[in-house]
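User: Before I run my own analysis I want an independent prediction to cross-check against. Here's the chain; please return only the structure tokens and, at the end, one sentence I can use as a sanity check.
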Amino acid sequence: MSDYLSAQELADLIGCKPNQRTAMSHWLTDNHWRFVVDKNGLPKVAREYRDRKLGISTDSNSSKFDATPNLQAFA
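Assistant: Structure tokens:
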């Protein structure tokens, strides 16, 4: 499976046909999605980015830093 959405998957997300590249680009721009355009004019959106934007990411965003400072270190 590719790291990028296929034309059909992107069309399903946007609600247009897979060959409507301009409509896809306009929708992505209007809705503030990040994308790149390939040499054929097809917008490319990363699967991981789509999952994060839609709130369906299964990644646990574990940071190596604590969310708050350790105030006990200054005592």
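Sanity check: Residues 8 and 18 are 5 Å apart (CA to CA).
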